[in-house]
Write a structure and sequence with these properties.
Number of domains: 1
Order of helices and strands: EEEEEEEEHHEEE
Radius of gyration: 15 Å
Largest sheet: 5 strands, mixed
Distance between the termini: 34 Å
Strand content: 25-35%
Length: 171
């Protein structure tokens, strides 16, 4: 099991690590300590880049089933959790549906890199898919699949997004 946290320092939501490796059949758990409060998570989700999810470009293996946690607003034992098991090898990119514009995206490499997730972020706009936010493309670009395979995890590149609102502009 690989754990990915949800972080919120200085007004910037992000997944950390941003890039993780799991073997085929491995499970990733997204986990966030939660004490409540109005709007504390504001609908954070773990959602695969897939046309079935808000008309996004396909960035998971073609034969993989798209995943979507839905809004993660309920806690059990002080934590909000979502787990996904990955049975198809390849590269999986995902986003938070409410925070994608500020770069809340991540990448998982299952076994070996491959599939549409290896294409340049934003390719789907030419096919009528939802556009890729610049901050999301920057974060995915900082998570090279070969680096993920070698290092097993890539921390969120906090230095790349300097203004979280409104669009997560880059340096």
């Amino acid at each position: 099991m690989v754990r990915v946290g949800l972080a919120f320092p200085r007004g910037q939501y992000f997944f950390d690590p941003a890039g993780v490796f799991v073997p085929k059949g491995g499970t990733v758990r997204w986990e966030f300590a939660f004490s409540g409060g109005v709007g504390a998570l504001m609908g954070v989700s773990v959602t695969a880049f897939h046309p079935a999810n808000e008309n996004h470009e396909l960035r998971i293996p073609e034969t993989a089933k798209p995943f979507d946690s839905g809004p993660m607003n309920r806690a059990a034992d002080g934590f909000i959790r979502f787990e996904q098991t990955f049975d198809v090898e390849g590269t999986y990119d995902y986003f938070s549906s409410t925070h994608e514009a500020i770069g809340m995206v991540g990448r998982i490499v299952v076994g070996r890199p491959g599939g549409p997730g290896e294409k340049e972020p934003g390719y789907g706009a030419r096919e009528g898919r939802a556009p890729m936010y610049p901050s999301s493309a920057v974060i995915l670009g900082a998570c090279a699949s070969q680096d993920i395979v070698q290092k097993k995890a890539i921390p969120y590149p906090r230095d790349l997004v300097v203004r979280p609102y409104p669009f997560g502009e880059q340096r």
